[in-house]
Design goal:
Helix content is 21%, strand content 30%. It has 9 helices and 19 strands. The strands form 4 sheets. Strands 1, 2, 3, 4, 5, 15, 18 and 19 form an 8-stranded mixed sheet that branches. Helix 3 links the parallel strand 11 and strand 12. The longest helix is centred in the middle third of the chain and has 13 residues. The relative contact order is 0.17.
C-alpha cells in the first residue's frame, strides 16, 4: 500500500518508551524520529496511544489440523490483539507447510507424550523431524489430571533429552504431582515454566515463591500463561506481584474455547490489563510481551523490537473502555471497566487489523 506514517505516538521499541513518529516503506521501518514530514499513502495519528513493536505470544494454540482439540485460527487469535508472532505450545498434528502459509510469524514447541510410564520418543522424534527448523523446544504437560501420570524422573529425562538437542523445555505445571522446587530444579537455564501463578496443588505460593525466585536467578524463564482464569489464581497472582515476583513473559495460552469469549475479548490485551491491574508496571508489561519472549524463543534478531531497518511488525494500543470480568476456580474475582485495546496491527509492513 506504499508508505505508512504513524505520527505522535508513545513508542515502545522493545527496551524503552519515547515519543516519536514512525515511517514504514517497502515493508521496512525506514525511520523513527520526531516530527517526520513525508508524503505517505496512509497516515495514522497515534496521539495518546502506545505504538509498540509487534507482540510475541510465547504460548498459544494454533489450528493446524481439522481434528485439533484446542487450536484456533492463527491470525484471528493474534492480529486483533497486536500479536504478530507466536509459539504454538504443544504441537503433534499438522504440517510445517501450513505454518509457512501464515502471515503470523511462528515457531512451535513439540508436544511430549508419556505412554506406559515412559517418554514416547517415537512420537516426539516424528514431530521434531516433521516440523524441523520451526521447533524451538518441547512442551511437557506435567499435570496429574491427564490419562498418563507423569513423575519427576520422566520430567528430568525429557529435560536432559532436550538439552542435548539444544532445545528448550516448556513445562505446564498446573495440578502438578511434584513440588514447585522439584520441577524447577529439573529445568535448565532458558527452559520455561508456564502457568507460574496457578492455584492448584504444589503452587508457587506454598514456599512463598522462594523456588521461583531461585530458579529465575539460574536463568529459568517464568511465563504467566494466563489462560484467563483457567490456569491463573488471582490470589496467587496478587501475592506474587506484592513480593515483586513478576514473569519474564506474558502469554495467553489462547485456544478455540477462549478467544473473544472468556470474560470479555480474551487475548493478549486482556492479559496486559490483568497484569497492570495486579501491580505490574507498564514498561515491564511491554517488555514481557515483546523483547523478553523474542529472546526466550531465540528470535530476538527478528521479533520483539521496533528499530530502523527491521521488518515493520507494529501494534498500536489505546487504554480505553475495554471491560473484562473474570472469576478463577477458587472464586477470586477481578474486573475493570477499562483496559488495553489494540487499534492497529501491521505485519510485514501491511495493515492486517484496524479497530
Amino acid at each position: 500500500m506504499g508508505k505508512i506514517l504513524i505520527k505522535n505516538g508513545r513508542v515502545w521499541d522493545g527496551e524503552k518508551f519515547s515519543f516519536n513518529d514512525i515511517l514504514i516503506e517497502d515493508n521496512i521501518v525506514k525511520k523513527i524520529d520526531s516530527n517526520i514530514i513525508e508524503d505517505s499513502a496512509y497516515n495514522y495519528d497515534a496521539s495518546g496511544k502506545i505504538v509498540s513493536s509487534g507482540l510475541v505470544d510465547a504460548h498459544a494454540h494454533i489450528l493446524l489440523d481439522p481434528s485439533d482439540e484446542f487450536g484456533f485460527q492463527a491470525e484471528m487469535c493474534c492480529f486483533p490483539f497486536g500479536v504478530t508472532a507466536a509459539a504454538d505450545a504443544g504441537r503433534t498434528k499438522g504440517k510445517k507447510e501450513i505454518l509457512d502459509t501464515f502471515m503470523l510469524k511462528n515457531v512451535i514447541f513439540a508436544n511430549v507424550h508419556f505412554k506406559d510410564n515412559k517418554v514416547d520418543y517415537e512420537d516426539l522424534n516424528n514431530t521434531l523431524n516433521r516440523f524441523n527448523d520451526k521447533v524451538v523446544g518441547v512442551k511437557v504437560y506435567y499435570d496429574s489430571t491427564g490419562s498418563e501420570k507423569p513423575n519427576i524422573n520422566l520430567l528430568k529425562e525429557v529435560c536432559e533429552f532436550a538439552n542435548k538437542q539444544n532445545l528448550h523445555v516448556m513445562v505446564h505445571c498446573s495440578n502438578s504431582p511434584s513440588s514447585m522446587k522439584e520441577i524447577l530444579d529439573a529445568l535448565h537455564p532458558g527452559d520455561i515454566l508456564t502457568h507460574v501463578y496457578h492455584g492448584g496443588v504444589n503452587n508457587a505460593s506454598i514456599d512463598n515463591f522462594e523456588s521461583v525466585m531461585e530458579a529465575k536467578e539460574r536463568g529459568v524463564i517464568m511465563d504467566a500463561g494466563f489462560a484467563g482464569h483457567v490456569h491463573t489464581n488471582f490470589s496467587v497472582l496478587y501475592q506474587a506481584f506484592k513480593n515483586n515476583v513478576f514473569p519474564h513473559t506474558i502469554s495467553t495460552d489462547i485456544t478455540k474455547f477462549s478467544a473473544f469469549t472468556r470474560g470479555g475479548r480474551y487475548g493478549m490485551t486482556m492479559c496486559m490489563s490483568i497484569a497492570l491491574d495486579t501491580g505490574m508496571k507498564e514498561e515491564e508489561i511491554f517488555k514481557a510481551i515483546t523483547s523478553s519472549p523474542a529472546k526466550a524463543l531465540g528470535k530476538e534478531n527478528e521479533w520483539g523490537y521496533l528499530k530502523e531497518g527491521r521488518i515493520a511488525d507494529i501494534a498500536v494500543f489505546d487504554y480505553t473502555n475495554e471491560p473484562y470480568s473474570l472469576t478463577d476456580n477458587e472464586g477470586n474475582h477481578i474486573e475493570n471497566d477499562s483496559g488495553y485495546r489494540c487499534v492497529l496491527t501491521i505485519s510485514n509492513g501491511q495493515i492486517v487489523y484496524r479497530y
